[in-house]
Structures are given as C-alpha cells and as structure tokens.
Design a protein that fits this description.
- This protein is of the alpha/beta class and about 550 residues long.
- The protein has two domains: about 5-70 and about 400-550, no CATH class; about 85-395, TIM Barrel (Alpha-Beta Barrel).
- It has helices at about 5-10, 95-100, 115-120, 130-140, 185-205, 235-240, 245-255, 270-275, 315, 350-360, 375-385, 465-470, and strands at about 50, 65, 85-90, 110-115, 145-150, 210-215, 265, 280, 300, 305-310, 320-325, 365-370, 370-375, 395-405, 410-420, 420, 430-435, 450-455, 460-465, 475-485, 485-495, 500-510, 515-520, 535, 545-550.
- The strands form five sheets. Strands 2, 14, 15, 17, 18, 20, 23 and 25 form an eight-stranded antiparallel beta sheet that branches.
- The longest helix has 17 residues, at about 185-205.
- The two termini are about 35 Å apart.
Length: about 550
C-alpha cells in the first residue's frame, strides 16, 4: 500500500466541515457528461518552427485566461540533466550542422548523430573518427550538445568488407522487416564489434564535454539497432544472462569509464543499469504504453491510479531516461505510413499534448522532438521540466484523465501525476468526463474502449502535493485548467497563513478550456483540511477540472 493509498483511506474516516458563503445563487450545471466533438481544446494542426519558439510570459497576478498556461518564472533554468533533441544528422554531413536553427527559448538543445559503422571504418582496421569529432565540435559552436548513435547490425550499416566473414543473417521476429541484420552474436561479428567499441573509447569521444549521450543498441527489424539483446524487452533478466550481450555492455563500460551516465540502452537490461547506463524507448506517441512496467517504475494501485515507484533505479538515480515524441508530420496520416495515427492530422495536437505529459510523468530527461512543435509554449515548458527531481522541480502537477487498458481486462488508468496526487475519498468523489475518441485503435487499449476522458468532475476534488516539494517553499502559484461547463461558482480552498482561505471562480458555460492562476501563501504543515489543495463547488455546482499545477515563486 502506497503512502497515498493509506492517506486516502484515512481521509474516508475524517469529517471536516468548511463553511463557504456566497451571496449569489447559481444554476446547476448539466449533470450529463460534457460533450466533446473532435479535439476542441488543443487548437488546429499547425507547425511552429523551433527558431520561432520563445518562453511564455510569466504573470505575477491572479488571472483567468483562455487555454492552457505553461509559463514558469524567468528564474527557472534548464536542469543539468535535461537534453532536448530537435535535430538528427544522418551520416557525417557537415551541412546539417551549419543549418541548425537558433534556439530562443530556455533549453539544453542537442543533435543526434546517426552514423553507420561503414562510414567510420570503410577499410578494415582503419577507423576514422575525425569527421564525427569535427561535427560534434561544430554543433557545440552553434550551441548544441551531441548524442552519438552508432549503427552496426544491418547490412547497410556494416562495411562491405565484412562479407568475407560469411556471417549469417539474423532471423527477425517480424515479417517483412525494414532492416536485414547480420547475426550480431556470431563470433566474427562480435569480435569486430568489441574492437570498434574499444577504439571509440580511445578516440576520446565519450569524454568530450560536447557529448551528452551515447546510444548502445543491438539489432531490430526497425531502423536504428533497437533493443539490447536477443530477447523481447519485457524479459530483461533473460538478456542479462546472454554472454555476448554482457560482453557488449562491458565493452561500453570500459570505453566510457567515468562517464557511464552518458550511455543509454535501446532496451531493458538490469546488468546495464548496474553499470550506470540509462535507457531510451521511443513510442510515447502511443501514450498508454508501458502501463504498468516495473522496469521503469510505472505501477498501478488497487484503484487504478498510475504512480511512479520512487525506489526504481532509473528513477532513484535519475539515469539517462529517454523518449521520442516525433511522429507528427503529415505523412503519418497517409497510406505511405499506413495511416498510423488516422486519416487526418486533426488529432495530432491532442496526441502531442498527452504524450508530452506522459513522458514527464515517466520522469524522462531526454526527448527527441521534431524540428517544429505543435504546441510551442508547451515545448518550452517541457524543456524546463526534463531531468527534474523533487529536489529541484520548479513545479508539480496532475492531469486528471482516465483511459482503459487490456491489462487486467479493461482496468482504468487514472491520471498522469508528477508529485501532485488526486484521490477520491468520502465526500471527495469524482467521475471522469469530457470523452475524447482515439483516432486509432491502440494495441494496449481494451477493445471497445478506444477513448480517453480528459477531466474529472465532482462537488469536492482533493489534491495532495509531495511533502518535500511543499517544505521548500511557502509562496506558490496554483494554476488550474478547467473546462468551462455549466453556470456556477467553485473555489480553491487551502490552509493559508491565517487559516483556511479560498479563491473563487465563476463558470459561464462557454465550453472552452480556461486556466485560473492564484498566487498564494500556504501553510501546509499545519493544515486542517483533508487535502493540501481542494476545489469546492458551491450550491451543488460541480467544476470540470483537467489540469492542476503548483509552481514555486
């Protein structure tokens, strides 16, 4: 039982009466679930180039605005662990480096160098890292760090001279693979691979200050040496027992001695984690995948709330932890890409929004993004969120949502939370509302339930905030994004310096997303309310809440 499960059950035994007065009488909201047609809360599909993005302005007053609010105080700078990749260089092309755009929002931008083995060792025994080193340095002069991603396994990755070793072709688990790979476990291939990694270490590349990460992969039918061993990633312990996989990991550990934290794997390996290596997945556009996943600390409690296991080594040690949120070009809604995300781009801003929140919920510190953004203010915010721990987080938040996955026969997955926890209890019951249909049938979703709810509604909604976050501050901005449904009034209730305080909001039934900001001085140590932050509807009104964020000021 988690701390928050225990807390929820305790609250069910507590009765606290808080009197909220109002001089007006408001009409009751429509009790039916808010109707959502399409994706009305995220705007139309529009690409903003990276060079056109700036940080949203920070407001120093109580205010209600239309839309979402992703602002942070100007004092907030990127984490030293943050890596925002907004470009890839396929090969050793120096022109791509020259074309890197200027970055005008606070971030730690990086470029990923996708380099084939054959480009660095066209002649056996003559490995030339100089062009790669020059590109790394040129990118640094443009303000970019570098991710080094070397590819080995495919026939078109490996040098032509390797054919003389008669290495067999690897049998793939998928039909019609994109890539035809050599059997990387073959003794000759393995020996040549280890020799190359040893040379990589001697080149000095891993220890360059300009280098922020190095990819350690295996082989896959997809492009990019995905995985870490011959077994499916869910069977991480099996890969740990394979001698040639352990030897590959050991070779990287020797080559990157002292900077092991820069290495990230293309699949799960506890042996790799023990070396200090991190991990990168790459399909967060399918924002409900890896639920649950004990290997990266993703768990569900008995009530369906998604939470993070803080003792997980990836989380506890803040290892290199990456995702890719990049499949948003028009081509993903065409026959060329098998209509992967539907037959139009209309859902793309919603998916982009949800995937960004999921990768932050997973505590990622590396993100591969496009060279554009569908929600520019949000991307600027994401860049400041990457790599944060509770010790240095500028804000904490909760996205009130619900979906249904095959795991457990269609069990609900409630909320994406980052140190703010909404829980139902006696007197604080909520229901999921604002149904949004999925544009496709994601494989992990319960058949017949291809939809999300993107808000919760209740007469009282309670939120607890991580104690460590609250203990380091007393002044906060509370930002509440709500769907303006019904005519009525509701309030933020919290324990202030002079006891229980409230701040009120009127709903006008516009159907729009609005964000209310309240600047507060909280005394959460001596609170007398069941939750740290509570939202109370007045005269029977039930607010429809989507997102709550608390910011240190």
């Amino acid at each position: 039982m988690t701390k928050y499960q225990k807390h929820t059950r305790l609250i069910a035994l507590i009765t606290v009466f808080i009197t909220l007065t109002s001089c007006d009488v408001y009409s009751q909201p429509d009790k039916a679930e808010p109707s959502v047609i399409g994706y009305p809360y995220w705007g139309e599909y529009h690409k903003t180039q990276i060079s056109d993005i700036t940080n949203p302005d920070w407001k120093t007053e109580d205010i209600v605005v239309e839309g979402w609010d992703w602002s942070l105080p100007p004092s907030v700078k990127p984490s030293v662990k943050s890596n925002l990749c907004i470009a890839r260089n396929f090969g050793l092309n120096p022109e791509k480096i020259k074309q890197l755009p200027d970055i005008n929002f606070l971030s730690t931008p990086v470029i990923s160098h996708w380099v084939k083995w054959r480009e660095l060792e066209p002649t056996e025994g003559k490995i030339n890292f100089k062009p790669l080193i020059e590109n790394i340095k040129a990118a640094y002069e443009k303000g970019y760090g570098s991710i080094v991603r070397l590819h080995f396994s495919a026939i078109d990755f490996a040098p032509k001279w390797i054919k003389k070793y008669n290495i067999p072709i690897r049998k793939e688990h998928k039909k019609n693979p994109i890539k035809t790979n050599y059997d990387v476990s073959h003794p000759e291939f393995h020996k040549l691979y280890l020799k190359f990694i040893k040379a990589l270490g001697k080149s000095g590349i891993p220890h360059m200050k300009e280098v922020r990460g190095l990819f350690l992969g295996y082989a896959s039918p997809s492009n990019g040496d995905e995985g870490i061993g011959p077994y499916h990633e869910k069977n991480a312990s099996a890969n740990d027992t394979v001698p040639h996989v352990r030897e590959r990991i050991d070779a990287w550990a020797r080559a990157c001695s002292g900077v092991e934290h820069k290495v990230f794997m293309g699949g799960l390996s506890n042996y790799g984690f023990s070396k200090g290596f991190g991990i990168r997945r790459g399909f967060v556009e399918m924002y409900l995948y890896h639920i649950p996943d004990k290997h990266i600390g993703q768990k569900l409690d008995d009530d369906g709330y998604l939470y993070v296991d803080e003792s997980n080594p990836v989380i506890k040690n803040n290892l290199f932890h990456g995702e890719e949120n990049e499949e948003y070009e028009e081509k993903w809604a065409t026959d060329w890409r098998n209509f992967r995300f539907g037959h139009s781009t209309v859902s793309f801003p919603y998916r982009y929004f949800t995937a960004n929140l999921r990768l932050l919920q997973m505590r990622c510190n590396y993100l591969l993004n496009n060279e554009f953004s569908l929600l520019p203010d949000m991307l600027a915010w994401v860049s400041l969120e990457l790599g944060r721990t509770i010790e240095d987080a500028p804000d904490a938040w909760c996205f009130l949502r619900e979906s249904y996955i095959k795991e457990g026969g269609g069990q609900p997955v409630k909320n994406f939370e980052r140190w703010v926890y909404q829980r139902d209890s006696l007197g604080y019951e909520t229901k999921p509302v604002a149904k949004v249909e999925h544009p496709i049938e994601m494989w992990m979703v319960q058949p017949g339930k291809y939809y999300d709810y993107v808000a919760r509604r209740g007469h009282k909604i309670g939120f607890d905030v991580n104690d460590a976050f609250l203990a380091s501050n007393k002044k906060f901005a509370v930002k509440i994004s709500y769907i303006d449904m019904g005519i009525g009034k509701w309030s933020l209730v919290y324990n202030g310096e002079k006891g229980i305080e409230k701040r009120g909001i009127k709903c006008e039934n516009t159907g729009k997303v609005k964000t209310a900001t309240f600047l507060i001085n909280g005394d959460f140590k001596n609170k007398t309310t069941p939750f740290d932050l509570e939202l109370h509807g007045e005269n029977g009104f039930e607010p429809t809440i989507s997102f709550l964020r608390i910011v240190k000021i």
